[in-house]
Amino acid sequence: MSTPTRQRATRMSPAERALSIANAARALALEEGLAAVTLRAVAARAGVAPALVAHYVPSMDVLIARTFASVVSAEVAEIEALLDGLPGPREQLGMLVRTILDGSRDDVTLVWVEAWALGRRNETLAVEVRAQMDAWQGVIQDVISAGVDAGEFETEDPAAVAWQLLGMVDGLNAQALVRWGDTTDRGSLISHAVEGMLGLPRGALDAPGA
Amino acid sequence: MSTPTRQRATRMSPAERALSIANAARALALEEGLAAVTLRAVAARAGVAPALVAHYVPSMDVLIARTFASVVSAEVAEIEALLDGLPGPREQLGMLVRTILDGSRDDVTLVWVEAWALGRRNETLAVEVRAQMDAWQGVIQDVISAGVDAGEFETEDPAAVAWQLLGMVDGLNAQALVRWGDTTDRGSLISHAVEGMLGLPRGALDAPGA
DNA sequence: GCAGATATTGATCATTTGGTCAATAGAATC
DNA sequence: GATTCTATTGACCAAATGATCAATATCTGC
Question: In which residue ranges does the UniProt entry place its DNA-binding region annotation (chains A, B) (predicted)?
């Protein structure tokens, strides 16, 4: 039973098929994690023979690395777009922290955590992980630097603060991923932590309408 | 070449052999990560036939979960011993943060990160991960609560602050694990963050002799 | 020494993984 | 309608994984 009897896939141009496979891998990663992005699983998801996936990708290590980059870079772009609409660094930083910690991106968090672990045995992925971390850090650092220039934040090393904040946020998200079921608000306390790092008065980063 | 030609293992009592296998798994986890704790790898490390490992352990999932618990609970015990020698909550909290972030436990951090990922597909491990997180949070919460009682810290929810601090520290360690090669001091900034969370003046958590 | 108890092993199995390659089928072109 | 090009596939392979079990070797008690 349950031999899905896949029929022959409709012929596509190489570009279309490559995209279809990349999308299948992406959806799989978001739903079941990077570890589920396997040759056969991707093929099944794309409605295609396993050999075709192998044909379109140099190796699974590379496909996994690309899939990770696809998922994460989309997240970065999304956040950057949100930041653009805000008036100043203070609002941007507050929104940044709240949005990243709002729990609506647990699927992406899972991809991050698995990438950290898998990167140990997949050098292509490891390189991509570092690149995406740099991208994230850059976004945060830009906000902080702008705040310092505007005289709103106080720190001698915006880059270090950005790394620190990124690490804190990643850890809190990873924690929430494992402790599913607890309803603790992740965002309320960290604002005070960031205020401490940047010499701000208590409550300076609270949401405007709160 | 390189056929190790293992000779028959010297006979041990079940208790001794079980310990030997557990130690082999532990060493393997610390050196190469939880993902390297495989039936054959543990057997080779213990100088024993793979079947013997299977004989002494209900399943590899369980062995991995136990190995994780062994590694992490030792770390918790170590930190608790360190805390005992300090006079007050303020010194304890400062030391806690500095010690956890001093970079000397990257092997344990790797075990943590892999446990988060593997826990998705190993329920026994997932249960153990939550238990060990609870233990860690308990240690931190005790310090914070003592500080609040002593009038040194200011927070309405020591439990939440403890979770928050644990998440932050885990994230920073995980980040350092991936970005090996950077020499950024991980501990300097977080003190200010914690000060922000606990209503402390800047520098209150700095090392005494600094 | 001998015999029994049992710790240990080799052989083997089923699964899952990534990967290769000749063969096939279907669309496009003539 | 026949032919060519190539996207797609089935049939493999090697490696690694967890696991089982009858057979074997070795220690212990007599």
Answer: 38-57
